[in-house]
Amino acid sequence: MLSFLEIAKRSETGPMAIADELGMKIAGIVTGLAKKYDIAYDPEVRVNTDDDLADRVWQAGRDLILEIGLYSINSRRQILFSEREVDEGLAAVRPEFTAGEGLDTALVYRRDVEDNRPPVIFGGPFNADVHQDMFVRLNEAFAGEPLIDLLLLPGYLKELDGIMIRPNSGLSTRAAMFYGRWAREAISRAGRPGLPIVGHAVMALNEVSSANEEWGLRSCDPRAFALISELQVDDVTLTRLAHYQAIGAPIYTSATPLIGGYGGGPVGTAIIGVAGHIGSVMLGSHVMHLGPQHIKYKQQTNAMSLWLGSVVKQAAARNSKMINTTSVTTSGRPGSMQYIYEFSALVLSVVPSGSNLTGPRPAEPLGWNNVSPLMCRLFAEVGHAATKIDRKEANRIADTLHEKYKDKIELKDAPKGLPFEKMYDVNTLQPNDEHWALYEKGKSELKELGVPLE
After folding, report:
1. Alpha carbon 263 to its chain's center
2. CB atoms < 10 A from the CB of 212, how many?
3. Cα angle 280, 300, 285; round to 5
4. What is the rounded CA–CA span in Å between residue 123 and residue 138?
5. What are the backbone dihedrals phi and psi of residue 116, each rounded to the nearest 5 degrees, phi first?
6. Within 13 A of 42's CA, how many CA atoms are on the CB side?
7. pTM of the predicted model, to two decimals?
8. For residue 2, how far is the Cα from the chain centroid?
9. Would you state the pLDDT for residue 167?
10. Distance CA 246, CA 343 (A)
């Protein structure tokens, strides 16, 4: 398996390329691969049930990463891999690992298609804009949800003491330190001091200052970074990766291929999605996260994204030992039924497809703290229930749910929702009556549709 040093060297010595020209090259390659492997999208399908199609998507994605590799934006060079190196990298993948400490240790594992084991739940604010006055309380409420296995991305601190934070400034370094300190305080207050925290402080290189075994993010906490669309890294990505590997933290890599981008429609984007997963493995990642994003809708629960999530997850689950997860970002916002419909549809498309779960969050949060721990509870419950049905049944229910919100998929048309403090009593950290009623209503409707919730 390639070392980080070798990756870093190739980012400085690989073939030169211009980003836009490489993007157009990718567009042409995926068009050819779709024809070669006879890959087509059926707009009536929400959850793929064709195993052979998933395998062809895998092969096409493998061909793409072998031809294109990854692109280093700052050095303008391609990081290329040989077929032998890719095969060795995939063979070396660890199908499980532990994160966190003590009684709160989480086992993070890969899942098969139609696996009856529950998905690992990465749940939390998911980098929503979280106000400093609510940071600890909000994360305490998330950490108090027992179905959450790992606290996910505790929130984006955009200001401190009323001052907007400028990236790469001393203030952003200070904010990153608070990010680690306050996240640790939150899990301790929730009575889960060993709960693993998936950290990504969104502070460029300043984020490394959140690491501290005593008061910040620990080496047992997975650290997150994102591949830049499509199949790109930058100096910040590689510097973070060097830091994560040096401290021995599990690495969580997200890839968000864009439907409507260089991949064109969902077929080409699925091929890029598989290539991104393999590229993440080559970088040494332990968890591969797919964000099935649509460039027009800017979210992940439209019809094309539902299919994309299912087929990419099945491709990876059937052909590798990768630990997979899928992010769930919606048009509707917490405090609305549409939010429940949307995250449930995507959960049903990916969990029977072999995925774990990351989320949920609105694609366009409005203001501070626009997330809900109670909705994350329902999200997790739907994920657990989805292990009891097959892909055919999941497709039926997901399609029914999609019909309920498809006409309000545009962000401007979607419900605005509510901030955390309008859905919870911030002193007791209990949902208020209206939010409880929404949870119960949503759960009842999902049961009526056939989701086997307890």
Report:
1. 19
2. 13
3. 15
4. 12
5. -90, 0
6. 13
7. 0.97
8. 25
9. 84
10. 36
Alpha helices in 320-432, H assignment, sequence order: 337-350, 373-385, 391-405, 420-423
Q: How many Å apart are CA 241 and CA 352, to the nearest integer?
A: 31
Question: Which pLDDT band, with edges at 50, 70 and 90, does 442 fall under?
Answer: very high
Token pair listed for 318 = 């059937």
> Beta strands of 393-451 (E only): which ranges?
424-425, 430-431
Q: Domain segments of the chain: what residues?
A: 96-449
Tell me what pLDDT residue 439 has. 98
Region 212-222: what's the mean pLDDT? 97
Task: For residue 440, give both structure tokens.
Answer: 């119960």
Backbone angles phi, psi at 371, to 5 degrees: -145, 160
Query: Is 379:343 a contact under the CB 8 Å cutoff?
Result: yes
The letter for the amino acid at 421 is E
Summarize pLDDT for 70-96 with one digit per residue, the tens: 999 999 999 999 999 999 999 999 999
- Rounded mean pLDDT of 363-375? 95
**Omega cis (within 30) before 230:** yes
Alpha-carbon distance of 126 to 291, in angstroms, equals 13
Spell out the residues 6+ positions from residue 399 whose beta carbon is closer than 8 angstroms to its own. 44, 46
Pairing of strands 106-109, 96-99: antiparallel
The Cα diameter of the chain in Å comes to 60
Q: Say how far apart CA 2 and CA 284 lie, in whole Å.
A: 8
Cα–Cα distance for residue pair 387/47, rounded to 1 Å: 14
How high is the mean pLDDT of the chain?
Answer: 97
In this structure, what token pair is assigned to residue 273? 């999605």
Q: What is the mean pLDDT of residues 13-37?
A: 97
Which residue spans within 268-415 are E strands per DSSP? 287-290, 293-294, 324-330, 356-362
Contacts of 365 (CB under 8 A, 6+ apart): 128, 129, 333, 371
**Right CATH for 96-449 from 3.30.110.70, 2.40.10.220, 1.10.10.10, 3.20.20.460:** 3.20.20.460
Structure tokens at 126: 């998911």
Could you tell me which residues come within 8 angstroms of residue 13 by beta carbon, excluding any fewer than 6 positions away? 77
Q: 163 pLDDT band (50/70/90 cuts)? A: very high
